[in-house]
Amino acid sequence: MIVSCYLNGQTLPTGKHTIAINDLGLMRGYAIFDFCRTANGKPFLLPQYLSRFRNSARLMDLDLAYSDEQITSAVYELLEMSKLPFAGIRFLLTGGYTEDSFTPTRPNFMITIEELSQVSAEVAENGVKLMSYEYQREMAEVKTTNYTVALRLRKRVQEQNAYDILYHSNGNVLELTRSNFFIVKDNTVVTAATDILQGITRQTVLHLAKAQYKVEVREVKFSELAQADEAFFTGTNKKIVPVVKVDDLQIGNGKAGKVTKNLYQAFLEYEKTY
Amino acid sequence: MIVSCYLNGQTLPTGKHTIAINDLGLMRGYAIFDFCRTANGKPFLLPQYLSRFRNSARLMDLDLAYSDEQITSAVYELLEMSKLPFAGIRFLLTGGYTEDSFTPTRPNFMITIEELSQVSAEVAENGVKLMSYEYQREMAEVKTTNYTVALRLRKRVQEQNAYDILYHSNGNVLELTRSNFFIVKDNTVVTAATDILQGITRQTVLHLAKAQYKVEVREVKFSELAQADEAFFTGTNKKIVPVVKVDDLQIGNGKAGKVTKNLYQAFLEYEKTY
Fold first, then answer.
1. Which of B41, B181, B211, B269 pairs with A149 at a CA distance of 20 to 30 A?
2. How much is the pTM?
3. Does an H or E element contain A270, and which?
4. What is the pLDDT of residues B136-181, one digit of tens each?
5. Residue B47: enclosing H or E segment and its boundaries?
6. Measuring CA to CA, which residue among A104, A87, A80 is closest to residue A27?
7. Choosing among A5, A14, A18, A26, which should be mutated to test the B contact, i.e. which has the most B CBs within 10 A?
8. ipTM reported for the complex, 2 dp
9. CB within 8 Å: B145 and A114
10. Phi and psi (nearest 5°) for A16?
């Protein structure tokens, strides 16, 4: 639930979290966003998220008229107002209010603070099943608001008792709907290099993995899943979650792997000292 | 500009055309729409547009809880309120207000009446240039709100003095950003069969063309453009517009073609008697 919100430089009073319906984000999907969260009551890795947000804006030709300092200060103000011990922080930038339903105007920029639930201990410990689906996100390096494929397939995911979707294209494993995907083989940690969103948690995990393991960032073939010892995915809120099954294929011994668990502990440690 | 609006069964007072920011159309692009217009002061081909809208809803797994009768009656009420002699009518259906930024709830259904400007006489008579771009719309048969590619490229279109973009993929010509594309060769009217939005104006024009010409609905190779005698596009508001150039390639003799003009006259006649 959204508990506080900032729109174009102004904090909105509670209950007024609305936008005019001629916003191009709503009418034409012309919008980018980013999403981070707090750790120890403070925004976690905020500069990295803002940098990616700014990059998405540039690639979508949307003008972000606020500096990192202005945005950071607004985030702290909203967090203070929200009084949430653990919060999600969302940035949204749209093509603005259009007069003719197509031509962009001055972008609308929004920050929202949201209640956030953590991944259950059961999921974090025992891992999940994914459903594979042939798809590559449009402009995969840009964090657009286009999640139509994921949302359209939500019932199929449930029917298959899957936790999320694993996208693949041309024989390569890419990413989940909102997470990056990794495999582990012979103590080497492997993840896709391109045609994915460059996750901030992915970057952190790659950094932590390099201290202990061999790391490969490259094309990952779908066929490698059958030989993998372990698999996991990373995300802002989900941190690191073991993957024990993709469709009907068991990964490794079907349990959360040793490397995955080690990286999860290293991540929690890193977060604690941030 | 939006002059009147209906949201979930209620007419909104002027100045209150807003939606809460946790709508999934805004947050996740999970929305479909359709767009028709008036002719002779009445909704033109409304049942056809509603049928396509309902089909998009079904394919996107969005529940449209209103009957054609309810929607039609609301359209007439809004048109009456708007007092516009010539109006656009937009239907929008979104994944509803989400509590966790991802899970759909009861869809939001909106109808808006908008001021609409007609294509200039110069464009209708002399035709336009298109800029080609390699792209195929995701779920092309569904009228989603995803126009990110079109909006991101708007400056490039302007720089090239083009009127719009012609999408092509795997060597096949598909459609424009919001219009269907046709070529004419030896008095045969040709248009793409699949991987496009099935335009209502396209259907009408195909029907009218069959009375006078041979018609082919099939794969259209990009390479056929160089041999075409004429080209044109069709759209709800733009009706029929001649295409005289694609990038640097002149189509036919570089002027609006005879078949295009004939079909345009036939279309105006059909509209007048609707």
1. B181
2. 0.97
3. helix A258-272
4. 999 999 999 999 999 999 999 999 999 999 999 999 999 999 999 9
5. helix B46-59
6. A104
7. A26
8. 0.96
9. no
10. -115, 25
